[in-house]
Specification:
By secondary structure, this protein is α+β, with helices and mostly antiparallel strands. Helix content is 17%, strand content 44%. It is globular, with a radius of gyration of 11 Å.
């Protein structure tokens, strides 16, 4: 399943793709992987596999990446 993340104006900033095993991947507008969330350990990891937070905070990774690009 793919969920588009949009800004206030409706522009697509990125997407979150959830695989059948429950693992979700955040991708930016260009399709680059920003991070992953694994529900088995309830942790969000960045592109370098470093733990960013507990819980699913993939949308904030997309928002953060977008803010750095502008």
């Amino acid at each position: 399943m793919e969920e588009k993340i949009r800004d206030f104006y409706g522009h697509v900033l990125g997407s979150i793709v959830t695989e059948t095993n429950g693992v979700a991947k955040a991708r930016d507008f260009y399709g680059h992987v920003l991070g992953t969330y694994d529900p088995r350990d309830n942790k969000t990891r960045d592109f370098y596999n470093r733990v960013v937070s507990s819980g699913n905070t993939l949308a904030s990774l997309i928002m953060s990446a977008n803010n750095k690009n502008h």
